[in-house]
Amino acid sequence: MWRLNESILGDNEEDDLFGGQQALCSLSPLQRIYGFAACLLAGLLCMFLSIIVFIKPIKFALLFTFGNMLAIGSTAFLIGPVQQLSMMMDPVRVYATCIYVGCVVLALICALLIHSKILTLLAIICEICALIWYSLSYIPFARRMVSNVTIRLFDTEI
């Protein structure tokens, strides 16, 4: 309770790996790392299993999308869900986040409601491209570098 009061009153000047949110969470730092690792490994396992069922695009889309959401959500264990959402809505990556979430929803709609294999595969391709572009937003100047390489290779701009 003392740590919560310090955090609310601002007396705690401690800046650590977890962004000062440690006192507001009931998980210890070790439990957070275990949660992050378990969620990330489960996401990677789902993505790997989706490759095995690639012949069936609907199952592929479900496993791949679920794996992506687990992998991206795993960082919420480290920095907290509020900080994760605020980083996703940062002006630098808000468009990439919206496009990625839209592609995830589109892939799930194509897989679960429409049951179209071709549309599901197209939505998954869009989802992968959006995930790459979203991930590049966390690396300084990565999107600009990819744009410059694309311009030089294909004489076009993203």
Keywords:
158 residues; mainly alpha; 8 helices; disordered N terminus
Task: Kindly describe this structure.
- With 158 residues, this protein is mostly helical.
- It is 73% helix and 0% strand.
- The longest helix is centred in the first third of the chain and has 24 residues, at 29-52.
- The radius of gyration is 19 Å and the shape is globular.
- The termini are far apart.
- Mean pLDDT is 83; it is low at 1-15.
Unreliable runs = 1-15
Query: Helix and strand string, N-terminal first?
Result: HHHHHHHH
* Main beta sheet: none
Estimate the mean pLDDT confidence: 83
State the helix count. Answer: 8
Q: How many beta-strand segments? A: 0
Helical amount among residues, as a percent range?
Answer: over 70%
Secondary structure category: mainly alpha
Which range does the strand content fall in?
under 5%
Rounded to the nearest angstrom, the radius of gyration is 19 Å
Net shape: globular
Short description, anyone?
With 158 residues, the protein is mostly helical. It is built from eight helices and no strands.
Strand and helix map with partners:
Elements: H1 2-9, H2 29-52, H3 57-73, H4 75-79, H5 81-88, H6 94-114, H7 117-136, H8 142-154
